[in-house]
Amino acid sequence: QVQLVESGGGLVQPGGSLRLSCAASGSIFSINAMGWFRQAPGKEREFVAAITWSGVTRYYVYYADSVKGRFTISRDNAKNTVYLQMNSLKPEDTAGYYCAAGAVAQAMVRRFQNYDRWGQGTQVTVSS
Question: What is the C-alpha to C-alpha distance for residues 90 and 108, in angstroms, rounded to an integer?
C-alpha cells in the first residue's frame, strides 16, 4: 500500500503563495499518478492538478482551468514527493486540499474516483 503525508497549508493573503507537499511511502511502484484535489464547505471535491509518469524521466502534468498559470505541480523522484506551488492565490482557492495517488490512466486523472490512496488533507485559507 501507499501512504501519503501532506504538509504546507496555512493562511495567506490574496496574491500570496504557498507550497503544498505530499510525501509518498510504501509500494510506490504500484502507482503512476498523483494529484491534488480540493473541497470547500458545501461543495464537491474538485480536481486541481495531477502528474503522471512513465519510467523515471517522462512526466505529464494536468491542471484545472481555474488554476492554470497560477499553480505548478512537480515531483521529486528521489524523495517520492509531489509539490503544488500555488501563486497569486485568490479567496476562492480557500479549501481543504487533498493529495491522492493511484494507478490512473491519463484520460482519467481529473476524476477523484480513480484514486485509491488519499492523504489526510491540509487547509488552505486565502483571506485578508
Answer: 27
Q: What b-and-e string marks burial along 70-98, b requiring 16 or more CB atoms within 10 Å of the CB? A: ebbbebeeeebbbbbebeebeeebbbbbb
Please answer whether residues 94 and 40 qualify as being in contact, where contact means their C-beta atoms are separated by less than 8 angstroms: yes
In a 10 Å sphere around its CB, with 0-12 CB exposed, 13-18 middle and 19+ buried, how is residue 62 labelled? middle
- E strand or H helix at 37, and its extent? strand 33-39
Q: Which residues pair with 62 in a beta bridge?
A: 50
pLDDT band at 85 (very low <50, low <70, confident <90, very high): very high
**pLDDT, tens digit (0-9, with 9 covering 90-100), for 57-67:** 788 999 999 99
